[in-house]
């Protein structure tokens, strides 16, 4: 039964990941374009506005997206599920529109606050249009996720990617619009696909907002907003600290490293897209607990291996993608940011039990504590160490958050996680990454990545049935 559940999760994650894979590959392929047509300062401005957009999305959603997933599965009745959809849809329309109006009016003040430089009001207004498009697009595509229609979700994602890439290249290369071209190009595809989805879902999107249901959804989702803000602090506040302390050019270098480490985000986005609907759909608690335990181990195995590869190969990846040497120091932050992403994935798994029993009201204490640590370490480490200090702060804060949530969740919803194996995959990958960066040779880096599964074998990571399956697989290939 566990094998069947894991295959189901893996199938949906793989399909969801296909859209993300194309998106991430194209994003990486665009890095030479960005580093050619944008200065580090221009690129820093774009990434600073991306960080702002993320925090505003968290605030304006008010937890409605998480509540939508939970309440959708409360009743099998189609009429009740449509009511949940319509309530979430119209609430999102209202809050995103309010955010767009305020952002348009306050653009000059926002540009000054973010240290974007002179005459950047238009860039800020474009970012708020993108915010509106993103919020509403993601609310509609969430319906594909609860329906477990991963192929339809990927089709919409790929259409978004193709339109976005085309618009970005046209605006940046042909019309030489710089940072503004990147921001406008990034929301063009999202807005176009959202309008198409409105037509596709028109029969389900009637004018209905159930206030009683909305209050119940908000009571579930609102306690997650402080947690979401803390997660924003962990993921994006370093851009603001770098902008204020070190300048937008350092934000640009740091963001290049973030983009390369975002290969880890690809794995996590694919997983986190499939995970809530999958995790909540397992009705039997005993089966859910067993499944969650193996999911954590296997997710961190894959994530640690990918973190190792990104970390040791980062110097050569950066030189390949960035023609301007001013961006090359960004390679130094790839490894810690990739491992921070792996720990975030682990947090997502161990936190699901609290969502399952609807005890989310204290999540913000854990994420808030990690955010405070991140802020303190950024203030302490960025002045002497720059972008390396910001990356160190991130991995320390995510480690704290993962461990604290695991302890808290185990008290409320015990799961037999395989902690020795979890420590083995993380520790082995971290040790090999240090060796690779110290030696700093391409052949050694590749060898370390290929040796990772063998190192785990020597450390006794694999269970007997896993070793048998590996042997059978090798025999079939031979």
Strand content: under 5%
Poorly predicted tracts of residues: none
What's the overall geometry? globular
The total tally of domains equals 2
Radius of gyration: 22 Å
Number of strands: 0
Commentary on this structure:
- This protein is an all-alpha fold.
- The protein has two domains: 1-36 and 225-462, no CATH class; 63-221, no CATH class.
- It contains 20 helices and no strands.
- It has helices at residues 2-29, 31-37, 40-61, 64-72, 78-105, 107-113, 121-146, 150-174, 178-200, 211-221, 224-245, 248-281, 285-321, 334-350, 352-356, 363-385, 387-412, 419-439, 442-458, 464-477.
- The model has no long low-confidence stretch (mean pLDDT 83).
Write a compact overview of the structure shown.
The protein is mainly α and 478 residues long. 84% of the residues lie in helices and 0% in strands.
